[in-house]
Amino acid sequence: MLDKTSPIPLYHQLRTVLEDKIAAGEWKLGTQIPSERELCEQHGVSRLTVRQAVAELVHAGQLIRDHGRGTFVAQPRVEQRLNQLTSFTQDMIARDVLPGSRILDMSIGAPEPAVAQALQLEPGGKVIVLKRLRLANGEPLAIENAHLPHKLCAGLLAESLENVSLYELLAAKYGLTLHVADQRLEAIACPAPEANLLGISRGAPVLHIQRLTFSRDGTPFEYTESIYRGDKHFFRIELRNEYDESHRR
Ligand code: 16G
Questions:
Q1: Could you give phi then psi for residue 207, rounded to 5 degrees?
Q2: Which pTM value belongs to this model?
Q3: Residue 211 CA, ligand 1 centroid: distance in Å
Q4: Which CATH architecture group holds 10-73?
Q5: Domain spans in the chain, listed from the N-terminal domain onward
């Protein structure tokens, strides 16, 4: 119910009501939402209010406008918590999305000096390069280019890694369990080759992520550069006020 006496603007109240309909599955994925006129009648508000609420949901990626056809409930973007160290597979399963991967490259070679340094390799140390297209419900979501010290997991080259969790395999066969990671994120315009693989336009906004992962004994065992689609994925982080006494116990 909208409250016309509330200081919260009506379009914002309506946005919340519409969001609840999507969350509750009353408005199902991919279905067309009622027309502006119907929404005005249902909620007793003006066209301007409806337009503003719907525009916000389109902007937030929850609705999609198909000009000439109408407005539809969008496939939700995949959320990833930044304060939890997880694998792609875990992130997808937590969101009821089917994870998958296609191998783009699997080889052994000499790393770039910066990668060799990050992975603390000895001079001449080699890396296994594993480049994968990561799929969410069969659709391309990210490209991950992992570099792993060859001496820590030499047998990996003989493994079949299509649709397999790298982290699960590293833990089960090589005793490499995630402990901490240093991760950097930046927004970039997607270069052409990656855009082709991801099925998006060249220059579309994507997140470029670098992750250096360490095992429990402090050994860096994975350096990965990834590109995540900006339109299908978002990161979320819980922020704590360090000055609030109740956090310091
Ligand atoms: C995550 C990691 C990636 C790692 C992958 C393993 C980011 C940005 N990257 O996607 O570095 O290689 O998980 O996933 O979070 P898997 O175990 O499903 O293969």
A1: -100, 130
A2: 0.73
A3: 9
A4: Orthogonal Bundle (1.10)
A5: 10-73, 78-236
